[in-house]
Amino acid sequence: MTQQHSLVFDYQKGNAMADRERQFMETKSAPLASSRFSFAFRIPLLRFAGMLVVSLATSGIANAAPAKPASILVTDHGWDDGESLDVTFGLSAASTDPKSKVVYYLVQRAGEHGGLYKDIAKIVPEKSDLARGVIKFVADKCELGEPYFFRVKAVAAGGVESEFVESTEAVRPSRQLFAGSRFWMGAITLMICGSVVFYIRQARGGRDLKVRKIAGLEAVEEAVGRATEMGRSCLFIPGILDMNDMQTIAGLTVLSRVSQQAAEYGAKMEVPTSKSLVMTAARETVAAAFLAAGRPDEFNEDNIYYVTDEQFGYVAYLSGMMVREKPAACFYMGGFFAESLILAETGNSIGSIQVAGTAQPAQLPFFVAACDYTLIGEEFFAASAYLSGDPDQLGSLKGQDVGKLIVAVLMIVGCLATTLADLTDADGIRAIADYLRNTILQSSS
């Protein structure tokens, strides 16, 4: 009995000891498991915290305000009519760095200090501005004698702005005697006018001024002679515009030459018109030409007549008359539009020798394609000087060529300077190109 009880007690004691050992092991292992759990999550948390700090730091740097302009100076713009002021503001040392984050400078203007400012310009700094550390801006559309205040601020990417730099004293625009913006316009005008006067004096003095031969005008004698040999008429059409157009006046100048040649050869001259004033002027022109040729009695004013003001009614009459009478020579000198191709093709179909001249660029291709000779552009307006040989007209023509030469030289120099500036990025060449574009060309506009 005692032995059995002792065995049961030993068994229970052993179980109790085993339970205490199990609880001890669980107690020892719990901190280890907890430390493993904490270590497993500690590294990602540290990484996230580091990224958050970097992001906040970067965001703070990116959103930092740019450096404000160092100074501002407002003065009256010289050589103008009192509508402009010069605004000059200096750049801070940080802003002159080519890697500066300043996108543009905003310029504002007001009529009183601390009043309502309005935006007048957004100036993007260029490399030359950064190199000088100064930006100069001309504020236009000012009122003569009125006070103005200005302020400028720098604006970075994202719309982040610096503080304003303001002018504290009112500046009033004043009017000068001469407008400097028109200086080059005046200089070029004086050169052209001086050239005209010089060549007129040269022509009056007996100097032979060489003028390039114009094939269409040289062919007048050939065309009238052919009409005389064939016993058919010469048809002259002065366009469909009235006497207030320069093309009509230039056409009547050629009509004088053609009429004089027809009077000398004894050919019939027919001039149908679409305007009554053109008819009157054409009659006077032809009568004077026949008188100059010594045959005033052969002039017949009925051959210069009015048809209609209606464009295609006029063209329909001319086309029918050309097909019926078959003139040997057709002259189209004046302002033409859609009727140019109809007339030229009709004359071509009847075998006439055709000479055309107009200042309408859209109609020149049709005349070139269907006519034997065509006066292109300024050849048409130079016909008067070419045919008359008058010293004053020849001198004017030669002087105008000097103006064309000046324009051509400026265009070539400007194109070369702009190209070289883009290729070499040289500040000196770019300054020349900018001066030609912004000063000389704008003064002539």
Name the helicity range: 40-55%
Strand adjacency order, main sheet: 10-9-8-11-12-13
Oligomer: single chain
- Radius of gyration, taken over Cα atoms and rounded to an integer in Å: 45 Å
Number of separate domains: 3
Count of helices? 13
The average pLDDT score comes to 86
Q: Got a strand count? A: 13
CATH topology tier name of the largest domain: Rossmann fold
Q: Summarize the biggest pleated sheet.
A: 6 strands, parallel
Helix/strand/pairing class, anyone?
Answer: alpha/beta
**Euclidean distance between termini CA atoms:** 134 Å
Global geometry: elongated
Assess the beta-strand content as a share of residues: 15-25%
User: How would you spell out the order of helices and strands?
Assistant: HEEEEHEEEHHEHEHEHEHEHEHHHH
CATH architecture of the largest domain, by name, is 3-Layer(aba) Sandwich
Low-confidence stretches: 1-11, 29-41, 56-61
- Tell me the name of the CATH class of the largest domain: Alpha Beta
Task: Considering the chains and any ligands shown, give keywords for the structure.
single chain; 445 residues; alpha/beta; Immunoglobulin-like; Rossmann fold; 3 domains; 6-stranded parallel sheet; 4-stranded antiparallel sheet; 13 helices; 53% helix; disordered N terminus
